[in-house]
């Protein structure tokens, strides 16, 4: 059996859900490895270097999915799709602040989950064509081909969605963009999240890039990158 689409690690302690997700991902030619707790998850990811991690938040043991997410973010940039039974705003916001790329709330449609996985991988893989490869905003270089943000030549690690937001702002430098426009342009028109998601990501960008990032809040509108 081929697995051309690459490896995905599914972290889920409920075997029924784990197997269901695996089944749907395998149909799309992904190679799927399952982990059932935090320790296993970190081991498998370190060993296999997957293209993406599907991560359940409610895990048995001392460490839950948010701990895993934090550790993954500390150690690299593997994209993370959070799967949560806890339909709590706090978990979602925390997950996104910790650098997760997207989330799906249980109960979920496996088809939708696969669509989200593909959307994340498209964003991660696809450098936009016909654009200059490096945009400059203040002290930040936005390298759209390598998907890197650099300050003084040093790469600043960003989650995939944070980079997308930065690149979108840089492509539209000088324009004030509303949160709705940013959601549309970065998350896509099919995304159901609310506009605070934009604020969460902006907060992360400001935290990571500091005053090198000339990003202004435009009251009553949204954001503008100088
Ligand atoms: Ca669980």
User: Total number of β-strand segments?
Assistant: 12
Span between N and C termini?
Answer: 50 Å
Q: Which compounds are bound in this model?
A: calcium ion
Q: Strand order within the widest sheet?
A: 2-1-3-4-5
Mean pLDDT: 88
Estimate percent helicity.
40-55%
* Low-confidence region ranges: none
Strand content: 15-25%
Total of domains = 2
Question: Which fold name is given in CATH as the topology of the largest domain?
Answer: Rossmann fold
Structural class: alpha/beta
Shape: globular
Q: Report the biggest beta sheet as strand number plus sense, adding barrel if it closes.
A: 5 strands, parallel
How does CATH name the architecture of the largest domain?
3-Layer(aba) Sandwich
The number of distinct helices, counting runs of at least 4 residues, comes to: 8
Write up what this structure looks like.
Helix 6 crosses helix 7 and helix 6 crosses helix 8. The model has no long low-confidence stretch (mean pLDDT 88). Helix content is 42%, strand content 22%. Strands 2-1-3-4-5 form a 5-stranded parallel beta sheet, with helices on both faces. The protein has a 4-stranded antiparallel beta sheet with strand order 6-7-8-9, with helices on one face. Strands 10-12-11 form a 3-stranded antiparallel beta sheet. The chain is globular. The chain folds into 2 domains: 118 residues, Rossmann fold (3-Layer(aba) Sandwich); 92 residues, Arc Repressor Mutant, subunit A (Orthogonal Bundle). The termini are far apart. The chain is an alpha/beta fold. The protein is built from 8 helices and 12 strands. The structure holds calcium ion. The site of calcium ion (CA) has 5 residues, from loops.
